[in-house]
Write a structure and sequence with these properties.
It is built from 10 helices and 6 strands. It is an alpha/beta fold. It has one domain: HUPs (Rossmann fold). The chain has a 6-stranded mixed sheet, with helices on both faces. α4 packs across α8 and α4 crosses α10. The chain is globular and about 45 Å long.
Amino acid sequence: MQKQTIALAVSGGADSVYLLCALWSNPEYRPFLRVWHFNHRVRGQLAQQDADFVRTICQSLQIPCVVGERAEVGPASEQELRQARNHFFAEQRKSSGINFLCTAHHYDDLVETLLMRLARGSGLTGLAAPRIWQKFRDGHLRYRPLLAAGINKELILHTLKTCGVSWREDATNTQPITQRNRVRAWLSEGAEYALGSHYQRGFARSAEI
């Protein structure tokens, strides 16, 4: 990546904490890192604890951190939460002038997304997402470095545990309340046994075609 100011979307979960630590471990990137955290206000006090955790880790790493929150409190659809989060990101881009946002999507996310879009009958454009690099109409760029590096959830968790790095766990991610959660649970039950140990790489190659 070029040396420019980089905003990282950090939820406090394992994926984004791994990404934050990975970039911070390179001293050349440290002066350019900024963290944006969005509190969806869905999980009550637990969500506030997520925000406090992100603030604390950023203070310890001496990284500027901005925390935003949804105006409404309580349950909302995935689309509504995504729209609120993207609105916060847009506000931050406008106020800071930062147009380069990194997110912590990895191979597991890619496989889940492709399967859901296949089930909906998406065309080639839909099946090419999530992309490693994505340029939006307003000119801002999103980069997914964990996808570029071929990182999956297993490696993320192993690395964090080995290094003694803590993260926040969202219990709702394991509950069958969304399609993605159900697909994730289905894959964990035997995808590697049925498709082979390198099936995630195969999905990633298909998304690039």
